[in-house]
Amino acid sequence: MSSRSENFRRVLGRVVQQDFVGRAAELGRIMAQSERANAGRGLLLLMEPSAGVSELLRQAYDQIFNRRSDVIPIYFAFTRNETTAVSAAIEFLNTFVQQYIAYRRDEPVVSEAPLTLQELVELAPAADLEWIEQLVESYKRLRFSNDDKALVRFCLGAPQRIPAGRGRAFVMLDGSQLAEYLNGVVVLGTEILRVFARGSFSFVLAGLRRQILEAAHDAECNFERLDILRLEQLAATEAAKLVEHVARRQQVATSEAARDLIVQQFAGSPFFINIYLQAAREKRAALLTYLDCERLYVNELFGGHIHRHFADLLEEISPRLDTRHLLIRLLWEAAAGEEQISTFEIWRKRLHMGAAELEDVLHRLHVQEFINWDETTVEAGAGPQAWKDYLKIRYRLDVMNEPRALVVADMLADSLKRAPHTMARHYKQVANAGLRDLISRFNCQPVPAVLFDYQNFSTKYKGAESETIISGLQAETDFFKLPQTIHLASCSAFMSDMRQLCEEEHCLVAHTFEEGSYSDAREVIWLAADIESKLEVDVAVARAWCERFESMAERIGFSRFQIWLISNEGFSEDASKLLERHKAFGSSRQQLELLASRVRDTVPSEVVQSSEPDEFLMVVPMGEDNELIAANTAEQIAKRLTFRPEAINQIKTAIVEACINASEHSFSPDRKIYQRFRVESDRLVITISSRGVVPANLNGTNSSTEVKQAAEERRGWGLKLIRTLMDEVEFERVDDGTSLRMTKYLRPQKGT
Amino acid sequence: MSVCGPREGSDQVDTSSGGLVRSHCVGTTAVVYASDYLNKLSGEKIERECRRQLSCGCRALVIDFSDTQLVNSIGISILLGIIDVAEKSGAQIVFSDVNNQTVELFEMLGLTRHVVLAKDEREALLNLSHFETTTPVVH
User: Fold this and answer.
1) Hey, of A646, A708, A714, A722, which one would you mutate to test binding to chain B, going by the most B CBs within 10 A of its CB?
2) What are the chain B neighbours of A467 within 8 Å (beta carbons)?
3) In angstroms, rounded to a whole number, what is the distance separating the alpha carbons of residues A551 and B68?
4) Alpha carbons A40 and A38: distance in angstroms, whole number
5) Phi, psi for residue B4 in degrees, rounded to 5
């Protein structure tokens, strides 16, 4: 039976199948685990904190339930309400019996109905009555035996008691809320794995990755019988889909810019996205602008779902109020300061705790990934942005006793100021993902050597048609064999001070082997930087980068290294000579793209009549001289208004310049230029918008310094031209990217 | 490989780079024709052709804009680069048949301070022939 058929019944899933987005691969993996071929095997679902796992398991449950095979789905979620391992295990036994009967009776409603064990026995099908009665009787005897460990093991082992021929259980345990230490003698996580790993049924145990892995080691599991699936935050595109689906379900109005900010602000966390949009629904808040988003976010930090989530965690980590305040202070000061790494002893002194108590606190913080603790050193400053913001407000309110109104206002202002930077960082990462992807694909492919030599490439191919370049490259006889990349990371991962000099994705260190031969002699470290420049990079910049990399190589001890600098427009003659002297490679963006195509297409524009009677909307893809399409459209519209030919040409040039600016500097995520032409009786108003980063030279100012610099650089003239050619030029305030409004007034022609 | 030529009076397509830049030589003057839209790509083609002509011995350049409808700022920055190259080579440069709107742009961005404008190709060549007869060649 197809799970997508009309007869598909929702049992435990909280959303319909179609609304469950972003975890298709993981769901497929869990379904595969339930197959007969994996009988007796366990799957550890190692979750990054706040990555969300409950709905994934519920969806898997529903799919298996609807399949009506011999696999009986059991889903059990540990909750923080269960205070002991015994009570949690008893709850598991109840759930197991209930869901077994629901499946056997093929009645989804039984799965979550509030029924006692005795009522369940009465609902058991005749064929199952005997063994279920025996199970319940045995449980009752053990319940009063005072042997907690035996009782826990009995309850957890219940799925093994299903008689042959009555199906086989597939148990999915949701341990995302599994309390670290429940009272009593039994450590629940460890006990679960001891019982399940030795059972004959398949299971999935999902939970915080550090916690579950530790439990598996403590239970001395046979890892040959365990599979591992890592569950991380959603990728940006999947997270954007999730925001759209949840917002629609919760009836929260959102804009694309707000959607993308939510995704980035919560780093693609399904947990935070869901509770945040739930809060929006509860407050009937529309999320259309950055201000809407940040206002709700700050409300959430101060008293909403996000506040409660972190407050509960902190209370669990440090139940005593006085210690909790000290902990908040220590965590925030470490996160905000330069020195994030400290010792156990310093923490002990600052928190006035005994060693055992501190170990417990640090362990809990470590499991939640708020710190990294290796028993000797404590590295603070980890955790999601929302956690850091929460710590900051708690510190200011609880430790510094600052007025609440001031803290609220500051947090809102800070969040708003941070929003464009958050998006800019994301756009730049996406734009530069190409370099990382390219280097990671190096695998001994032979490529034309000219692709690493800008001067040679420029002499041979600058200004040539792409077909000519491609055929020229095919005819090249001088080849360079790429090494094999085995490890790739940003420079700042090796030297934190590099973070001040370049964005993470702009500057990479790749450990490679020539010819794929793993020997000292063949090991080469590639040091690559993508330099932002509108012009050919000059000798001073090239020298600075070469010296920077050489110094880095010396400090870290890279004996053989290869410097590779990339710049949009390549390198000046002097810079190219310098690169040659340093035995460094230099490539332009064009060479990089040609290289990428070796190591591994234009969309028509659309003109739409807007809802306004005298307004035209047009979207064109960036590049491929598409600015001409926009300019020609403007010409046709301007002719209707009887603009003089000179004025039409001025409008066309201004549009071309605006489009070029949008294409060149915006790191646009969708690579599109949005145009609006509004015809008024005495004027034509044209708005050119693009999403992405606001370029420094397009910030709406027109200082004399800017014009002077532009003239000196021979580029960056666009805005100056636009301002001269059009009558009014104004930047409209938009959250995401740039929107330039240009107005040209219709002047009566001479003689009319 | 750079191809020197062309014979006097004949049109030339720069086949070595594949760029379709029309040019021809009149004596030691190369006439290079700009396309209808002068942008980065077409500007670079013109630059390449001018460099090629200078390396083949031309002592003056005429860039003809009779077909050019639209010019963008990147195209203009490349023209400035060509003017620099010509100056360094001791070659004269004249822009011919530039439409009024483009002249306006050139003036706005200061190009007209560095280059002579002529009504058409004939006038450009006439200006240059006057220069050739009055300026000695320094080797």
Assistant:
1) A714
2) 18
3) 50
4) 6
5) -85, 160
Which ranges of chain A have pLDDT less than 70?
A: 1-6, 82, 179-187, 338-339, 431-433, 499-500, 503-504, 600-613, 665-666, 694-716, 733, 748-752
User: What is the DSSP annotation of A58-125?
Assistant: HHHHHHHHHHTSSEEEEEEE--TT--BHHHHHHHHHHHHHHHHHHHHHT-GGGGGS---HHHHHHHS-
ipTM of the complex: 0.82
The reply to whether residue A464 touches residue B73, judged by beta carbons under 8 angstroms, is no
Asked whether the beta carbons of A687 and A675 are under 8 A apart, the reply is yes
Q: Which helix (H) or strand (E) holds B37?
A: strand B37-38
Quick one: pLDDT at residue A695? 63
Instruction: Label residue B57 left, alpha or beta by phi (over 0 means left) and psi (-120 to 50 means alpha).
Output: left
- The answer to whether residue A536 neighbours chain B at the CB level (below 8 Å) is no
Query: pTM to 2 decimals?
Result: 0.72
Q: Do B70 and A462 touch (CB under 8 A)?
A: no
Per the listing, tokens 């369940």 go with: A120
Give pLDDT, residue A699: 47
Strands (E), A142-221: 168-175, 202-208
Show me where the domains of chain B are located: 11-131
B19 — contact with chain A (CB < 8 Å)? yes
Is residue A466 within 8 Å of residue B19, measured between CB atoms? no
**Terminal CA-CA length for chain B:** 26
What's the half-sphere exposure (Cβ side, CA atoms, 13 Å) at A745? 5
Structure tokens at A564: 């590779």
What domains lie within chain A, and their CATH numbers? 17-231 (3.40.50), 238-411 (no CATH), 441-599 (no CATH), 606-745 (3.30.565.10)
CATH T-level fold of B11-131: Transcription Regulator spoIIAA (3.30.750)
How distant is the Cα of B136 from the closest Cα of chain A, in angstroms? 31
